[in-house]
Amino acid sequence: MDFRFSEDQLALAESVREFLADTHGPQVLRHLDKDGPRDPNIWQGLVDMGLTGLMVPEEFGGLGLGLAEAALIAAECGRACLAEPLVDTAFVAVPWLLAKGETGQLAAILAGVCRIPLPHAINPWVADGDGAHLKSVDPLRILTKGTGGDDPHLLDLAALMSAAQLVGLADAMLAQAIEYAKIRTQFGQPIGAFQGLKHQLASCAVAIEFAKPVVWRAAQALQDEVPTRSIHVSHAKVAATDAATLTAETAIQVHGAMGYTYEVDLHFWMKRTWALSGAWGSRAFHLNRIDNAVLGDMLELGPQATFA
How many domains would you assign to the chain? Predict the structure, then answer.
């Protein structure tokens, strides 16, 4: 079996990466932070590219793609530190509505005139909802507190997409740290030449690359409705959180004391990492789900189960 993404899937992700790089760079983030975290032109650009309809079925005018493609694009949203709540509406709310057989809002979502923040008992703070705004560690997230049930499918969808964004965030922070290590000099040479720093950055790269297939596997498991899908989602959230947190800490160290300051673009990605690490279930919550599955014999272990 070929587990690789197809050329079409990778081309889609690359086109989104290029679009976001051109329209949503660090200067745009600073503009949003200063003048207001929402720009209608940015949202309209996402709509025009068809991203709000990525998972909307073709009979309703969308692209009709699945969770694997959505996870790939969510990672690109993380890489760009996208401020707009595209992932929450297009990659979480849409498949959740489809699972419930509710199609009445799909046309409005596709057209970009409807955003659907979905609160949950484990995550009552939603992006861009109605009501009084709450402060977030991430200044580009507009949070409101809602009341929601404990739908496990909604939790899995949102935790998966948070994990996908986290691996994209980690990729971006690692790239920023590497570039800074090339230009910052100490003792007459770039700091990136020092063995200790190389090892730190390499550890981040390994953690990210180990987290990615876990996230992609969780997306496919959720798409295929395999019985152990929730465990795969929790594994993905833990792996992505660990990789992004490690990379954020390392990138700050690479930048030195100025790594914490507003003058360094890194802080936008760092704050988004902190926000998403605790969203839709903390690391402890998802580790507990994995522990209960393994110790409770819900998850069969060993090669005979893994490769069956």
Answer: 1
Whole-angstrom Cα distance, residue 238 to residue 298?
19
pLDDT of residue 308: 59
DSSP state letter for 134: B
Q: List, in order, residues 6 or more apart from 113 with CB less than 8 Å away.
A: none
Low-confidence ranges of the chain (pLDDT < 50): none
pLDDT of residue 157: 98
Q: Which domain holds residue 290?
A: 171-306
Task: Show Cβ contacts of residue 180 under 8 Å, excluding neighbours closer than 6 positions.
Answer: 254, 255
pLDDT of the residue at 302 = 78
Residue 289 is assigned to a structural domain of this protein: yes
217 with 174: CB under 8 angstroms? no
pLDDT digits (tens, 9 = 90+) for 216-236: 999 999 999 999 999 999 999
DSSP string, 235-264: HHHHHHHHHHHHHHHHHHHHHGGGGGSTTS
User: Tell me, what CATH number does 211's domain have?
Assistant: 1.20.140.10
